[in-house]
Amino acid sequence: MDNYFIIKKKENIKPKKIDTSLLIKNHIPLWFKEFELNKNVSNKLNNIVNETPNIQKNIMNLFIYGRSGKYTMAKTYINEYIEENSYDIKLSIFTSTNGKELEYYRGKYHYELILNKYNFTDFNLIKEFMSLIVKKDNSYFSIKQNIILIKNIQFLKLEFYSLVKYYVEQFSEFNKFIFISSNNIVKNFKGLFVNISIKKNNEKELEQFSKNLLLKVNVDEDNILNDDIESIVKQSEGNIGKLKNLLEYCYLTGTYEEFPDCDLDKIKFLYKLILKGKLECLIIIRDILNNLLVENVSSKFIIKTLIILFIKETKKKFINKNKKDIIHNLVECEKNVNTGLRDLHHLEYSIIKIMNLV
């Protein structure tokens, strides 16, 4: 048997899978060494936390203000200190003695509170909640400090600055506070925090960051053109979250498709996503709907535009077959919107029903 053949099984070479889903939630740095943007700030905070390598980690009160990336910077600071992923948090509800409720998040070693104009405006609520999370009435024994992160501290009313300041001053021995704000530190808090300013990233940095991110989700390098990336970066206005969303929208299929600026074009883009009928599009659909509603585009206008687009559609047989049911569904959605609140909920539900038809 000098002559023989080696028979090999033919391998199916699969094309690259494009995974641009949830860019805003995925590919977030967990450790300072992973930062591509704001490296001067991440290096500064890394030096604070890891000031004494191989010994106990160090942590200080921070007041982080400025441009996009503040929350990610704060969370990474917490991760480095506790040496765990601090994104594992649970929603909790605090009820004050006078019946006021407050939503907050709780992790293993930290608390998170996101302020808005209305949720932190009662003296008793603030006093009782702060007493709870600084563990005022309990002995706190841990090798780790208890961390309290308050986002959007700029919404705190002037009359409550002294109350919050009291807790920072009196309970910093076993607690560390991280305040995040769009504005610079107010004089009431000066001297209590290390002041950290997040500057606007320059466009070249954002362009390189965008290219790297697209490559991570298997977008072909040949489809990543400089002109397209420059356009996306300009449209993002330096906001990293918005930049990630735009990258997700524009490279949904692996090749660039311009994301519209005007309301009508956004609804047309929404229509295209509905026609895809894919579950992974729902997150993007929700973002677009929310964006339109926040910009005061009426639900009635969104529904009316979608109805017109479906009526005009003649090329797709499955649309023509179910057109009557689709239009009926959108009309019912408008009725539900007119008789109730929660526009986003009704729009989402209607779109899901349509996606099942297409």
Write up what this structure looks like.
This protein is α/β, with parallel strands linked by helices. Helix content is 45%, strand content 11%. It contains twelve helices and seven strands. The protein has helices at 39-49, 70-82, 123-133, 161-170, 203-216, 226-236, 240-250, 263-276, 282-294, 299-312, 317-339, 343-357; strands at residues 62-66, 90-95, 101-106, 110-114, 146-151, 175-181, 194-198. Strands 2-3-4-5-6-1-7 form a seven-stranded mixed sheet, sandwiched between helices. Helix 5 (203-216) packs across helix 6 (226-236). The longest helix has 23 residues, at 317-339. The radius of gyration is 25 Å and the shape is globular.
Tell me the fraction of residues in β-strands, as a range. Answer: 5-15%
Helix/strand structural class: alpha/beta
**What integer is the average pLDDT?**
85
Q: What's the number of helices?
A: 12
The tally of beta strands, per DSSP, is 7
Largest sheet: 7 strands, mixed
Element order: H for helix, E for strand: HEHEEEHEHEEHHHHHHHH
Helix content: 40-55%
Numbering strands along the chain, what is their spatial order in the largest sheet?
Answer: 2-3-4-5-6-1-7
